[in-house]
Specification:
Distance between the termini: 47 Å
Bound molecules: S-adenosylmethionine
Low-confidence stretches: none
Pfam families: Methyltransf_19 (PF04672)
Number of helices: 9
Helix content: 25-40%
CATH topology: Rossmann fold
Order of helices and strands: HHHEHEHEHEHEHHEEE
Mean pLDDT: 97
Strand content: 15-25%
Protein name: S-adenosyl methyltransferase
Number of domains: 1
Number of strands: 8
Organism: Micromonospora craterilacus
CATH architecture: 3-Layer(aba) Sandwich
CATH class: Alpha Beta
């Protein structure tokens, strides 16, 4: 693979998680961000741990296939590793990330990677959907929507989540996170996130879910969503939820 000359948030997260799929340009960007904000590894490890608990919780309801949007790098405790018995379709819009993901998953018969714009489910490849999310629209599935809401305005996010709700079968589950206003106290770091980045007050998270009904845990700091033990003590940067598409 030709070495990218631009950093990617997905590969920066891989660096913070201790993975092997990042380049010097990503490490430099990650270090610059940490200069402006502070240590990021504990925050992203807590977020990845939430992903694991969320998808295992969804699988425990009987769901055995997952569709992942804005998937980034499919390693370091990502969905197919957390629920190895399930089939998983990872999607992203970034061609470099998609190629990297396809290389990592080459040879897997349970997980694949393709293009998918989360805001337009019509962009999903029907053949990949058929293979890795069989019964899409007819059988309950898990939809993973992590690291994405922060890059969508309220109207686009609400419409996208509503279209997903309409597309999936009753009993489907959504795992989602929202960025808090944590970066407000770190303007230099905030500027590095680019103009599309949206911080939100926790009170605004619930209404954006629309028809999706959060499980009893609600929308909470990701460390507090069904913690395995005492919640990790990390800055309150991400809140998360698992929400259900009810019958009818
Ligand atoms: C912050 S990274 C998160 C990656 C991964 N979910 C994780 O938590 O490690 C956001 C990812 O979303 C992708 N992305 C941005 N806009 C998207 C869209 N409209 N649809 C799908 N993916 C998108 C980016 O290319 C990037 O890989």
């Amino acid at each position: 693979m030709v070495e990218p000359d631009q950093p990617s948030t997905a590969r920066m997260i891989d660096f913070w998680l201790g993975g092997e799929h990042h380049y010097p340009v990503d490490v430099a960007a990650a270090r610059a961000f940490e200069q402006a904000y502070g240590p990021c590894a504990p925050v992203f490890r807590a977020l990845r741990a939430f992903l694991g608990r969320a998808v295992r919780g969804i699988a425990a309801t009987g769901v055995d296939s997952f569709l992942v949007f804005g998937a980034g790098v499919p390693t370091m405790g990502n969905v197919h590793e957390a629920v190895p018995e399930a089939t998983v379709l990872y999607t992203d819009v970034d061609p470099v990330t998609i190629r990297l993901g396809q290389r990592i998953l080459a040879g897997s018969d349970r997980a694949g990677y393709g293009f998918g714009d989360a805001t337009d489910i019509g962009t999903l490849d029907p053949a990949l959907l058929h293979r890795f999310v069989p019964g899409w629209g007819r059988r309950p599935v898990g939809v993973v929507f992590l690291g994405l809401a922060a890059f969508l305005d309220d109207e686009t996010l609400a419409r996208t989540l509503d279209e997903l709700y309409a597309a999936v079968a009753p009993g489907s589950h959504l795992a989602i996170d929202f960025d808090t206003e944590e970066l407000a106290g770190h303007p230099e770091a905030l500027a590095m996130m680019g103009p599309a980045f949206r911080m939100r007050a926790p009170a605004s998270f619930g209404p954006l879910l629309g028809r999706w009904t959060p499980t009893a845990e609600g929308v909470v700091p990701v460390t507090e969503w069904r913690p395995d033990g005492p919640p990790a003590q990390v800055p309150d940067a991400f809140h998360g939820a698992v929400a259900v598409r009810s019958a009818g």
